[in-house]
From TrEMBL:
The keyword Transmembrane helix applies. The keyword Transcription does not apply. Keywords: Membrane, Transmembrane, Transmembrane helix. GO terms for cellular component: membrane. Belongs to the autoinducer-2 exporter (AI-2E) (TC 2.A.86) family. It is a multi-pass membrane protein. This is Putative inner membrane protein. Pfam families: AI-2E_transport. The chain crosses the membrane at residues 29-57. InterPro entries: AI-2E-like (IPR002549). It is found in: Membrane.
Length: 91
């Protein structure tokens, strides 16, 4: 009986915890779920809390890096023209 209860509660915990974390964070549910399960496997009981936090920070950093806007005035065509002028002046 205790084994059945432990399986039910453990499964519900692994499903409900990511859903509750998802409500507080704007992250994909699969990322949170993998953070909870991966943290549990990697760090044990404390990994239930560390795993999602590490993945959330990593996700935010990656997202900021991917969606980074180039600085104004750095037109690639202008940079290529400047490089060609520099190369021509050194010939």
């Amino acid at each position: 009986m205790l084994l059945v209860w432990s399986c039910v509660v453990g499964t519900l915990d692994n499903v409900i915890r990511p859903v509750l974390i998802r409500m507080g964070a704007d992250l994909p549910l699969i990322l949170i779920l993998s953070g909870v399960i991966g943290g549990l496997i990697a760090f044990g009981m404390i990994g239930l809390f560390i795993g999602p936090v590490l993945l959330a920070v990593s996700w935010r950093l990656f997202s900021a890096w991917v969606h980074e806007v180039p600085a104004p005035g750095n037109d690639p065509d202008e940079l290529l023209e400047e490089l060609e002028e520099i190369e021509d002046s050194h010939k």
